[in-house]
Amino acid sequence: MWDWNGTLLHDNDAVIAAVNQVCAAYGRPELTWENWREVYARPVRTTYEQILGQVLDDQNWARVDKLYHDQYDVLLPTSKLAADVPGQLLEWASTGRTQSLLSMWFHRQLIPLVEEFGLTGLFSRIDGLAAELGGESKTEHLARHLEAQELRPADVLVIGDVVDDALAAQAVGAQCVLVSTGAMTKAALKATGAPVADTITEALRITGTALDRDFGARGRTE
Q1: Are residues 67 and 94 in the same domain?
Q2: Which superkingdom, per the lineage (predicted)?
Q3: What is the model's pTM?
Q4: Which of 43, 158, 198, 201 is deepest in the core (most CB within 10 A)?
């Protein structure tokens, strides 16, 4: 099961520009990408409270979310797929194993973008966020995603780019490999205990080793 933003989609430039749009609106100095990686955590609301230096009530949190996504949406067309995508996804599909996509980005925007990149047919299921505001934990989202496919969590391997991906996998009983291409430092990722890769290709190499070791002859895996 793949994460999208920061994992399959390389959108780091759009992300930091959108974050700095929020900072400018609240009179805070701009952040570099490394600054953002150092502070980023979930729930994202607490991260913004840290960088903006104030507690965000519901009204201000809605404003932050809108400022961010308005700018992110403008810059999204400049984002590209991660290196080795879709090649590695096609290779995975050729083995007869399935793969799905689960994102904390808005479902209504995720579906057409995945289609635009020509990836839709590679996934057994695609789920984005149905809520109007993002930033919460991925755990319940992951549990529903697996239930909808009638998958046993023990037969699933999650590939994502943030600590929350690992925590969600651990919470439901799935395995996880993290890639260091997104919004969190490698040190933070390694602290979860999950294997950490620098690329999609390396992540799938680790994944293959994990499957050979732990899943053996089990039937359906993700």
Answers
A1: no
A2: Bacteria
A3: 0.89
A4: 158
Rounded distance between C-alpha atoms, residue 184 and residue 38, angstroms: 7
206 occurs within a structural domain: yes
Residue-level pLDDT at 201: 95
pLDDT tens sequence across 7-28 = 999 999 999 999 999 999 999 9
Of 11, 4, 159, 172, the C-alpha closest to 92 is 159
Mean residue pLDDT of the chain comes to: 91
Instruction: Kindly report, residue by residue over 170-205, the tens digit of the pLDDT.
Output: 999 999 999 999 999 999 999 999 999 999 999 999
162 and 15 Cβ atoms separated by less than 8 Å:
no
Is there a domain that residue 220 lies in? no
The C-alpha atoms of residue 196 and residue 189 are separated, in whole angstroms, by 7
125-133, long-range: CB within 8 Å, 24+ apart, which pairs? 125/100, 125/101, 125/149, 126/100, 126/101, 126/102, 127/100, 127/101, 127/102, 127/103, 128/4, 128/103, 128/104, 129/103, 129/104, 129/105, 133/61, 133/62, 133/65
* Amino acid type, 190: K
CB atoms within 10 A of CB 140: 12
pLDDT higher than threshold 80 for residue 219: no
Three-state DSSP at 195 gives coil
Helix (H) or strand (E) holding 87: helix 87-94
Residue 70 shares a structural domain with residue 103: no
Mean pLDDT along residues 111-138: 88
Domain coverage including residue 74: 12-78
Same-domain status, 185 and 84: yes
